[in-house]
Amino acid sequence: MRIGMISESLEDYLEIIYNLIDEGNIARVKDIAARKNVSMSSVTPALRRLAKEGLIKYTLRSDVELTGEGKKLAARIVDRHEFVKHFLVSLMKVPEAIAERDACIFEHYMSPETFRRLVVFFEFVDTCGMDIRDRFEQYRRNMESTGASDPCTSPDCRNTEMGSRHRRRWGQVKTLLMLKPGEKGRIARIQAPGAIRQRLIDMGVLPNVEIEMKRAAPLGDPIEIKLRGYHLSLRKEEAESIIIFPAQIEIREPDSGSGEYYG
Amino acid sequence: MRIGMISESLEDYLEIIYNLIDEGNIARVKDIAARKNVSMSSVTPALRRLAKEGLIKYTLRSDVELTGEGKKLAARIVDRHEFVKHFLVSLMKVPEAIAERDACIFEHYMSPETFRRLVVFFEFVDTCGMDIRDRFEQYRRNMESTGASDPCTSPDCRNTEMGSRHRRRWGQVKTLLMLKPGEKGRIARIQAPGAIRQRLIDMGVLPNVEIEMKRAAPLGDPIEIKLRGYHLSLRKEEAESIIIFPAQIEIREPDSGSGEYYG
DNA sequence: GCTTTAAGTTAGACGGATCTAATTAGATGC
DNA sequence: GCATCTAATTAGATCCGTCTAACTTAAAGC
A218-242, pLDDT tens digit by residue? Predict the structure, then answer.
């Protein structure tokens, strides 16, 4: 649990109380229970815990009110909830119902710093004048129809969501240049200024594409690679700007043991 | 907890076991306990629960191994963890330690759809040729040094993180055009094609700026507004493209009641 | 004003996840 | 081969958040 804070469950109660009042209702045990999908007998002790934290005024058998503290915290949570949902729906194009569910969790756990940054990013998208929203929507539709960028459908990676024991090592940085001759990799992203990047993209150097190092000249320039069945020659700088997912791991299959066994 | 799935805590155990094996160690109770910052006596029952779910092979007093199922799930979690962290650090510029903490939670709860979309967005950023990373970094630094975009420092909104009972209603859409004469609002974002947006930005129409409707001509065109102390005249279409945070709520201060009272 | 009903509370139980303290199993030393 | 030490497990307790079932209050009807 978050240190020095109330539990996720209590935050939920607080948020529900806030929303009920905000909507002009009085916050009754019954309504709170209904919203949280919980029995009334679970609400009473929760209210007691909230009162003990000084977040609500709780008088037995009368409606609940928020203290100043309670309002502050509730507003904070609701603000996060609504922002996260909005961010996911309007920028990332996550379906509303799903965004709602995700927001219900993130509102409790997202650090203030991350929240702040997402807000700034969101503002940036709207003010940078690059039509990022529209362009992304276009890109996404394209990807979705071809399935090209979907990690779970591309043939060499029935990864991550469903299938295999593989994972992509997002964090580590490995460039194309680090591959040994004969070694294969999948492209993670391209880290190059506009012109070079465009040239690479035009050649088909795109995320999730498999790429194989054929050979490098002694001084590292030029480099011959294989990509989508054909060969290409790249300059050293270009190869350096192509980020590869590092080798995927394969954990050894455990041999079926004996002895006391659970399951 | 997530229906049909194991608890967050169990996912943590599974992830730790996966990582230990991945690093070439054997997964012993002692090491697992150390990583999760938990006593050894908490690990044993957790292992039993994992074995019951068919995710590990657990033989009393011998080291733990993952089943195929276990590997799949663990890899999925680790993949999410690393992606989320990478996304936050390299794109949103969240400090690494904080991103790590956030990733620890999101890995458990993020829906597959949201994950998928974030991945696609991330790829988009790298391939759209707009240098979004650099431009955002520039924007962010600028914002940070002026404090302009920080919701917590701008004078009319000691909001959200720290101060007040206010919140911004991100989800609802209210345009400048909907304000009545004399009514004030804060700009959420601008939803207009390039040229118009640029004109508005040049005039100082930026997120988090307070804006006041002065008056609108009978047919709604032109519109006179006040912004940063000076007056501006806008066309109807322009005003329509400026999204305002809807009025912020103020919950009535509860009068101090009597009766049975907790806290 | 008494009865009925709905809302709220209490009592008691349970499961998950943790702890401390005590115990057992295996490996190591001599 | 016995003593010792360390790793692992069990026993027993606690806390949070939930439940069902029983009880209490207060309001509504008549």
Answer: 776 788 888 888 888 888 878 877 8
